[in-house]
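lol ok so funny story. i was supposed to be doing the assay writeup but got distracted and ended up predicting the structure for this chain instead. priorities right. anyway since i did it might as well share w the group, maybe its usefull for someone
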Amino acid sequence: MLRKLTRYACLLIVTAAFAAAQEPNNTSPAPDLSTIVSRMLAAQQRNSVHARAFTVKRDYQLLDKEQVQKAQVIAHITYVPPDQKKYQIESSRGGLGERILKDVLEKDIQPPKDPDRHELSEKNYDFQLLGTEMVDGHPCYVLGLNPKRNDKELIEGQVWVDQQTYNIRRLEGKPAKSPSWWVHDVHLLMSYADVDGMWLRTFTYAVANVRFKGKYEMVSRDLEYHVASKQVAGRVSRHTRPAIVTGVIEP
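and the output, tada:
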């Protein structure tokens, strides 16, 4: 009986191994770096095509090194594709800091100058595949960003690219060129999320040392959206790490 059981067990092992060998391998090989970058750029182009008019309520805050709020501006920004933006300030306070935040708001609504020179593409960056990480529960490729020229609109750092959609979920680093003589040691981070089918920046943080003033932080957080007469609320991730606006703390 023992000999029969042994033979039966061996038969099951051989059968299982044969069946496994016949099953197709559904695991696709990971794409190479060039493919990831091209798919990331294609995702950005798709997002621009899918853009619709919306209004976002955005909270800007300026904090000192003790995390004390020095200024705040809350504004409603309306975007109409392809590049029309206007805003209305709901409330503001903070003296000089208030003026700085209003300058950031003005920068946010300006259409990009020569966007091709600042896009995340191989024309402007040398990329490096650093590995994979999870961002908000989504597996991402982590790419190193090495700007090809000194430009304050280019970022030296890292970008997290969603493995499924190739949308950018996070961008972090420092400007390839200091924004001004007044500002140095700038660190930036931007986070992105889906808003009613559109892929938008929803959180921004910048920290820098301002000459003669010390360390300051700027945070902008999207509070709610109105898309095509429909309100979309509660979609904004809460982050505590840095996000990105180049030169946001310039006096």
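DSSP finds three helices and eleven strands in the chain. The chain has a mean pLDDT of 82.
back to the writeup now i swear
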